[in-house]
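COMPLEX REQUEST
Ligand: zinc ion
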Amino acid sequence: MVEHAVLENPYECCGLLTSRGQTIDGVYPCVNEVQSRTRFSIPAAQLFEFFRYAREHELTFAGIYHSHPDGDPTPSHLDVAEFHYPEVSYWIISLRRGRPSVNCYRWDHDAGGFVPVMFQIVSARMRHDLTPLPDLSISKILSVVPHRESDPNL
Ligand SMILES: [Zn+2]
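STATUS: Structure written out below.
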């Protein structure tokens, strides 16, 4: 995720995450169709492709990530307004001052907003067996992907 954020800088990057059990082990970089420093939007075609791929491979949709090239890793007003998936984790990568940092949130219905979630990186090994979405080859994509991240609250 951090590599993707650096690659897309100065624009926001965005992507989707899958898990097996409680461990997130799939990172699917997407295209930010609005090419903005303060907003992101995943193309509908990529969302569709992602959900089909996840279903075919019995992967659980576990999260959405995007970057804040200039801001802190906290949800912006736009993030709150445009969030559509309250059942998954929400990851923000900040590149502020050249020091990447990552926060994770989930949507809390009672609080009516995002609340922070603790997570633990259990392995930073690259998983070359993970197949990126076929449709994503049209974007400038990382060869592969991820760090495995565990989120006890997922
Ligand atoms: Zn944001």
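REMARKS: Helices lie at 2-8, 44-56, 77-81. The longest strand covers residues 60-68.
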